Amino acid sequence: MPPLKTIAVTPTKRGGGRKRPSPTVDADDGEVSLPPLIARPPRKVLAQPMHRYHVGDKLRMANGGQSMARVAAACKVVALLPYEGRGALLYRVRSDNENFERVVPEADLTR
Questions:
Q1: What are phi and psi of 33, to 5 degrees?
Q2: Which helix (H) or strand (E) holds 103?
Q3: In the predicted structure, residue 42 carries a pLDDT above the cut 60
Q4: Rounded CA gap, 81 and 35, in Å?
Q5: Which residues contact 102 (CB under 8 A, 6 or more apart)?
């Protein structure tokens, strides 16, 4: 049987390589020294919008037009819904004329 031939293949880097070198151990005292970290500027944090109305406030809810079945009526704020990072601030309200609660954007509520 003839001997098998080997083919040398150069390894390819996957994932882009290392971001920083691995820690090294000093032979003299056995301490581990870490490379200096790259300082990054802090991220800018945007201020969250504040709810204009509070729980228990009596407000006027605008009608929904043709696309939404909602009648203009007086309502009471039941809960403030958390801001989701985009869009309008939302409220959970209960109308005086209805037996259920609705989620309404702040733009549709007035004092």
A1: -110, 130
A2: strand 101-105
A3: yes
A4: 46
A5: 61, 70, 75, 92, 93, 94, 95
Please give the C-alpha separations between residue 96 and each of 39, 83, 99, in angstroms, as whole numbers: 57, 26, 8
pTM metric for this prediction:
0.57
Listed as own residue / partner, the contacts of 26-33 with beta carbons closer than 8 Å and 24 or more positions apart are none
96/111 Cα distance (integer angstroms): 15
Residue 62 CA to residue 97 CA, distance in Å, equals 13
Q: Give CA–CA dist 83/46, Å, rounded.
A: 13
**pLDDT score of 68 more than 60:** yes
What is the spatial distance between Cα 47 and Cα 34, in angstroms, rounded to a whole number? 36
| Contact call for residues 76 and 91 (beta carbons, < 8 A) | no
Residue 57: which of 80, 37, 77 has the closest Cα?
77
The side-by-side arrangement of strands in the sheet containing 109-110 is 101-105, 90-95, 73-80, 58-61, 109-110
